[in-house]
Amino acid sequence: MEDNIPEYSKQQLSLRNGQDKPEIWVAYKGHIYDVGKSRLWRDGKHYEHWAGQDLTEELKDAPHTEKVFEKFEKIGVLKP
Prior knowledge:
- This protein is mainly beta.
- It has one helix spanning 10-15; strands at 7-8, 25-28, 31-34, 45-46, 49-50, 73-78.
- The chain has a single domain, classed as Flavocytochrome B2, Chain A, domain 1, CATH 3.10.120.
- Helices cover 8% and strands 25% of the residues.
- The mean pLDDT is 93.
């Protein structure tokens, strides 16, 4: 675990989808980000992407790069 930030399972992440729990989180390359403050993630949906998921594979189809995650707070790591 890095920098003492908590680890979450994929199941725990899936609940942070803006519907089941108020948090809106996504994972990318093993890190979990809180995207809840972004108006682009309102209700846990961003274009065809849903919160509560690992978006690592989906990012290659996005019009932006991984630098977009620099804007968001890293709040955990995804358990392998």
